[in-house]
Specification:
This protein is 40% helix and 20% strand. The chain is built from two helices and three strands. It has a three-stranded antiparallel beta sheet with strand order 1-2-3, with helices on one face. Strand 2 and strand 3 form a beta hairpin. The longest helix is centred in the last third of the chain and has 36 residues. The chain is elongated. Bound molecules: zinc ion (ZN). The site of zinc ion has 6 residues, from loops.
Length: 127
């Protein structure tokens, strides 16, 4: 038998799950726009900050502790920025769902919510 969860908590859960059901692809990382120096000592970019190359649209992410960068075209940015935004939204939604589920288990079991987690020292301590 499913636990007794307050209707408004279940309504919130359904709203979150519905949004998750519509979620598109999710990409890690962030976008930045930057100018760069090419490293050739004779290039104009070496001495004049206004002559640096770019601006380039850079997508950066971490893959197995390594930073990975890729230059995007404006069209690619338009396509993939929503995917990057989706991961942020996905994490927000799973966080909300987790908090909601904690509310639900406490409501269903009649447990008091403790904002201050018990220190582990209470395990096996006093009777
Ligand atoms: Zn250069």
């Amino acid at each position: 038998m499913p636990p007794e969860v307050p209707a408004e908590l279940d309504a919130k859960r359904r709203r979150i799950v519905a949004e998750l059901g519509q979620m598109g692809f999710v990409l890690p990382g962030s976008i930045s726009v930057r100018t760069v120096t090419c490293g050739r000592p004779t290039c104009r970019c070496a001495t004049d900050p206004d002559q640096r190359h770019g601006p380039y649209i850079q997508w950066s992410r971490t893959d197995r502790a390594r930073k990975v960068n890729r230059i995007l075209t404006p069209a690619q940015l338009e396509t993939y920025r929503p995917w990057i935004d989706n991961l942020r939204r996905l994490r927000a939604l799973t966080g909300e769902l987790e908090t909601l589920s904690l509310d639900a288990v406490h409501a269903a079991e009649g447990w008091k919510r403790s904002t201050n987690p018990e220190p582990s020292a209470t395990c096996g301590a006093a009777p």
